[in-house]
Amino acid sequence: MFWQLKFHPESKDHNEFCALWLVALPNPIEKYSPENWSDRSKYSVTYFMKNPCEKLNFGKLENYNARSPVWGFTKFCKKDRLPKEGEITIGVRFNKVK
């Protein structure tokens, strides 16, 4: 399974927020057989950001499918909570991986 985490420093719909998206990238089998997307529904994820400390439990990925491969937040974190200099760590933790 392939995944891509996308961070947008300015949300398109909410200028004062950052946006974060987890995108499911179909593997060769998933491209031609939508039934294989059901494997992704077995996972749940937690988005996280350190510095500042943000943690959002996103829950099960049961709605991932070939037509809707993106889940995320248009209002992940207010931009004014981000440090003006330095580093931040943004990630996603897959919970209960089988």
TrEMBL record:
InterPro entries, alphabetized: TRAF-like
Gene3D superfamilies: Apoptosis, Tumor Necrosis Factor Receptor Associated Protein 2, Chain A
Protein name per Swiss-Prot or TrEMBL: MATH domain-containing protein
Organism: Rhizophagus irregularis
